[in-house]
Amino acid sequence: MQVTVTVNGEEYTRDVDTRLLLVHFLRDHLGLTGTHWGCDTSNCGVCTVWLDGVPVKSCTVLAVMADGHAVRTVEGLERNGTLDPVQEGFVQCHGLQCGFCTPGMMLTARWLLDHNPDPSEEQIREAISGQSCRCTGYENIVRSVRWAAEHSTVEATK
Amino acid sequence: MSPAIGGTLARLDGRAKVSGSARYSGEVPIPHLAHAVLIGAPVANARITAVDATEAEQSAGVLAVLTHLNLPKVAMQPSLLPSLAGLAAPGHTFFPMQDDTVHYAGQHVAVVVADTLERAEHAATLVRIDYDTTPPVTLLEEIKDQAYEPQKIFGGLLPGRQVRGDIEAGLRDAEVRVEAMYEFAANHHNPIEPSTTTAAWDEVGRLTLYDGIQGPTSTQLTAAAFLGVPPAQIRVVSNYVGGSFGSKAMVWPHATLAAMAARHVGRPVRLALNREQMFTSCGHREQQRQHLTLGARADGKLVAVRHHKLSLTSHFDDWAEPSLQSPAIIYDYPNYEGIYRLGRGNINTPTFTRAPGEATGMFAMESAMDELAERIGVDPVELRLRNCSDTDPATGDPWSSSGLRECLERGAELFGWAGRDPRPRQRREGNWLIGTGMATAAYPHAQPVNPQRARARIYSDGSVIVEAGVSEFGTGISTAMTLVAADGLGVTVDQVRFAGGNTDMPNITAAVGSAGAGAASAAVHLSVTALREQLIGMAVADEQSPLHGADPAAVVVEGGRMALRDRPDAGETYSAMLQRKLVPDVEAIGNWIPPAQDVGHGMHTFGAQFAEVGVDAELGLIRVRRMVGVFAPGRVLNRRTAHSQLMGGMLWGLGQTLLEATRMDARSGRWANASLADYLVPVNADSPDVVVDTVEVHENVVNPLGVKGVGEIGVVGVAAAIGNAVYHATGYRARSLPIALDDILSQAS
Amino acid sequence: MRPISYSRVADVGTAVGTVTADPASAFLAGGTTQVDLLRIYVEQPRRLVDINDLPLRDIEELPNRGLRIGALARMNEVAEHPSVIDRSPLVSQALLLGASPQLRNMASIGGNLLQRTRCTYFRDVSTACNKRTPGTGCAAMDGVNRGHAVLGTSDQCIATHPSDLAVALVALDADVIAEGQRGRRSIPVHEFFLPPEDTPDIEHPLDHGELIVDVEVPPAPDGSTSLYLKVRDRESYEFALASVAVALRVEGGMVVEVRLALGGVATVPWRARRAERMLTGQPATTENFAAAAREELAPAVARGMNGFKIELACRTIVRALETVAPDGAR
Fold first, then answer.
1. What is the pLDDT of residues B518-543, one digit of tens each?
2. Which of B55, B380, C198, C229 could pair with B373 as two cysteines, CB 3.0-4.6 Å apart?
3. CB-CB under 8 Å, A133 with B677
4. Which of B619, B673, B675 lies at the smallest CB-CB distance from C316?
5. pLDDT averaged over chain B?
6. Each residue of B674-683: b (16+ CB within 10 Å) or e?
7. Residue B360 DSSP one-character state
């Protein structure tokens, strides 16, 4: 069936199989491969994107469910060639190694900071505990989000 | 100018990874791509009696259903050889879908190819396969009476038995003995990216494989051998890999199957393992049991160690991870016996899993050392110091470098170990019993056996490209190699671009066993050194150069400018010289020949781990509050990436200790928790406060830059440090990993 | 996933009518469990009726100091709603200790109550499971069953009910409001979750096509203190090995009123009525808490690997009661 999904502010209309998962729609139909796929069962969190302004796991959302809705992916974090403070934080604080979990982590982090601009370490840890990282040991991820909190401008979001 | 090596350069692939533009092996845009889905046998010990693919073949979008009935035979009878050898490196000596036998659950029995993933997945459920089944054997308990002593283990690399001195006499004469049995659950790597291969043949029969792998060449050579295609016709691209931890060290059949499927349907094919298939398709850390006896003098000096391991392997390979290697040599004692015993079961061949061997063997050793310390009333750190050896006890050779004493002392200081009350169950904070523990970490230094190569080229504008065929699976190797190249050539980091990730580039053996950085840095260092000598040679031979006639040895280079050491004003930049001479570029190859096996030195990496735990014994909860790890990994190329790897390794150790276990349903012979919902890995909320430090050692044996690597050592010893801390907190000695809530509940409250 | 059709509905009547008329259809809300189960063929409807556009997302305060929560309100919306935090902190706590933020943003309250068990055999279509395929047997009974239930089991099924929210709702005597072809009805939550007995495939009393529209949550007893305590291997993001929802009112050292429910150990969210009866009117002491806990777990049946849950449940009850009792009740 035909769906129209607004992704990172741009409307995309595509004819899709009703079984198609949002994660594969983004990756294979729109070429937005920054959203990754890792477990099929909504556990690892690498497929996290925003749906209507909140982070969700796109491996348990059908593409057809997103018809008429707005999605934000990692490709939509950057503004006019400037990295979001969260992205900058992950680079500066080495919040990544293999990078596979990174986009999902950052989307949750951005959402967290939008709602809680000055989160504690515990709040950060809890916010991203639905997302697994096997490389970093998480410490630098927490530091990256803190870095972003300390370097965020009011305009950085939305 | 300070050298780039040892600094804290932010990783150069950071921007690609945070912007989402880094493309992993399942993300390369290829027109007309078809999707392959593997079907795994739902039974573990069977013969296939019938296959009916009719419904699947007629299902919408299906291009092919391949089974043992129509898949071509592979051209090679596989042999098991670790990818570090640099040759074809299949994960097991078995290739699926060659006959009707099912050796283990999950074994690939069919491949379905369709025009979309959704259609391929659905069609896979329509393939009817009938099995004639026999009860499987999948547990240690079931094979322990039929276990045998293998000639060799670990892909033929190590002997099945190692002995020195007189173990019977040593144990008999010991004044103190500690003897215990240790149990280990199977573990799975669970990198967050499932293994994925995209295969595309061109019109003249050349194959491109986009494969997530620890070394592109290993896929190239393995696929070439299986397909009967010259390696020169196969190009493997592995630009970004979403974690591996050993699961992508060997080349498992799916990579070749993707190529076979693509050839069969005449279209490019992507084959991604799903998460469940990751539990049966790329090895695991085997379920095992270790029996360890320490004999010591009353002052704690070890005199004898007997260490036996029993583990489960497949029907076709003698695989055991080398759990006995480090415990055999980390301390100075004369009498030793290490024996591996194996039992065959209906499981896939196990494989390298981060800190392969040491993660388990050092848990046994360092738990027993903690018991010994308590028994004789010596502080655990002091006990290790008393047993430190300046030489490799197996050979008597000096260490190429050690640093163990310094790690123990520095770790104790950072952790605040001094003054610890050794008695268990003394500290309580509310419902939490608090305890501290420590352990030695050790990991043998592995070397590739074949030459390692890199190519360096400078352009007349001064920009430099350095290439070597390494994979970036998170370690930060590209960043580290940029630093090595900049220092070696005498240019700034921003003048250098390092490129890796495919087989067009000079060959580097797979980055496994913490050997990747050492091998690649050696090749890169030699390539830029050769280039620099060539450039200096050009300058001193050029009448128009301010350096004309100078002794090349008297020329130094900094920021891309060659100058006389004694007269810095006399000089010119590489760029100025090349432009004047109308030379567009200059290139050199670095060719590092690793030292032979017998270098007259013991080569090992050491470290020390400390942990503090809180145990809510009433509810069975163990929470690690903080960890300190200090390591001596030789030269650290980039502190930032190295520390991150070490820290990540320590969390792996935490996972192994408290959470990670793959449980077998012995009735079906299938893993009972093959998902990330049921196989628990640590989440962010589990990660404690971690301090990582390194101590400097003088290392000039292992490779030109003295790099021993940091991939594994961070894991080693964590389990024992935490287990010892749990003992200190509760008085309960855990000898089975993971330490389950159930055990604490019944034993420690 | 097998081929499936998809449509949206905008009002409850159409939703109910559409699904009622087609036995092969199913409602689709947040999808966090359902899409997963569709992918692994545990659920195989031919038609999905997306109800996310229905006006069932409001959270209202009721005159009795209770709450009415729309079935499509997302777990996070409910957990963070000021009225919920104020009036029903137990519900908020239970929600926040469940799943992860990304799932809670998507998962609905109605869907939470209807989520299926995490039993790995239920989720594996190649194994025997009476809940998934009645009459095939129960592979969990002698299988890897560390996570399975010890209370409310039958010889047909030992699957644990996974919801945290439901445990809190059972403690609070909430009502599930459903609308079907026969109209609207209110189902007391303790009647909503059906123990497996001989029909483990029947988990609730809803007819096919009957839709949960609201959940009504009465206030906790006056003067009580409440807590949701969840014990699990991992610090976060895991289903409970044992959990306790408690609301306790103590006066003069005596238990005046207590509500106690258990999660993670039973086939349904388990109201601990035996323990409640034993405690009411008794001194709030650890000894009495422990005796009540033992009484509640007396009928528990361990199988293979899950025996530890009996002791764990007892201790979790005691810890929860101690935590909310004045002065820790020692």
1. 999 999 999 999 999 999 999 999 99
2. B380
3. no
4. B619
5. 96
6. bbbbbbbbbb
7. H
If one counts every other C-beta atom within 10 angstroms of the C-beta of residue C305, the result is 16
Number of domains observed in the structure of chain A? 2
Q: Please write the tens of the pLDDT for every residue from B95-121.
A: 999 999 999 999 999 999 999 999 999
Q: Are the C-beta atoms of A60 and C1 separated by less than 8 Å?
A: no
**Contact yes or no for A137 and B687 at CB 8 A:** yes
| Closest Cβ opposite residue A54 in set C5, C50, C105 | C105
pLDDT in tens, B639-684: 999 999 999 999 999 999 999 999 999 999 999 999 999 999 999 9
Residue C98 confidence (pLDDT) = 94
CB pairs under 8 A between A and B: 180
Closest residue in A to B277 (Cα–Cα): A39
In terms of residue numbers, what domain contains A14?
2-74
ipTM exceeding 0.85, yes/no: yes
**What are the chain A neighbours of B684 within 8 Å (beta carbons)?**
124-126, 128-129, 131, 133, 138, 141-142
CA proximity to B554, closest of B542, B546, B562, B543: B562
From chain B, the residues in CB contact with C120 under 8 A are: 672-673, 675, 678
| CA distances to B533, B557, B564, C66, C138 from B552, in Å | 8, 11, 9, 88, 80
CATH class of B448-592: alpha beta
CA A81 centroid distance within chain? 18
Which candidate from A21, A62, A130 shows the least CB-CB separation from C101?
A130
- In angstroms, the CA B90 to CA B351 distance is 11
For domain B146-187+284-446+599-747, which architecture applies? 2-Layer Sandwich (3.30)
* pLDDT score at B157: 86
Chains that touch B (3 or more CB pairs under 8 A): A, C
Residues of C within 8 A of B619 (CB-CB) are 231, 312, 315-316, 319
Å from B12 to nearest chain A CA?
9
Sort out which chain A residues have CB atoms less than 8 A from C48's CB and list them. 18, 62
Chain A hits for C29, CB-CB cut-off 8 Å, are none
Question: C141: Cβ–Cβ under 8 A, 6 or more apart, which residues?
Answer: C155, C158, C303
* C59-61 and C67-70 beta bridge pairing: antiparallel
Cα B466 from Cα B562, distance rounded (Å): 20
Distance CA A91, CA A148 (A): 11
Residues A34 and A67 in one domain: yes
Considering only CB atoms, B683 lies closest to which of C127, C236, C308, namely C236
Q: What mean pLDDT, rounded, does chain C reach? A: 97
| B121 contacts on C by Cβ (under 8 Å) | 1, 39
Confidence of residue B8 (pLDDT cuts 50, 70, 90): confident
- Which stretches of chain C score pLDDT less than 70? 328-330
Same domain, A6 and A62: yes
Per-residue pLDDT at B1: 45
Kindly identify which residue of chain A lies nearest to residue B647, measuring between CA atoms. A137
Q: Where are the domains of chain B?
A: 32-135+192-243+248-279, 146-187+284-446+599-747, 448-592
In total, the C-beta contacts within 8 angstroms joining chain A to chain C are 77
One digit per residue, the tens of pLDDT, for chain A of length 158 reads: 999 999 999 999 999 999 999 999 999 999 999 999 999 889 999 999 999 999 999 999 999 999 999 999 999 999 988 999 999 999 999 999 999 999 999 999 999 999 999 999 999 999 999 999 999 999 999 999 999 999 986 544 44
Q: Can you read off the two tokens belonging to residue B209?
A: 């494989």
Residues of chain A with C-beta less than 8 angstroms from the C-beta of C102? 45, 48, 55-57, 108, 130-131
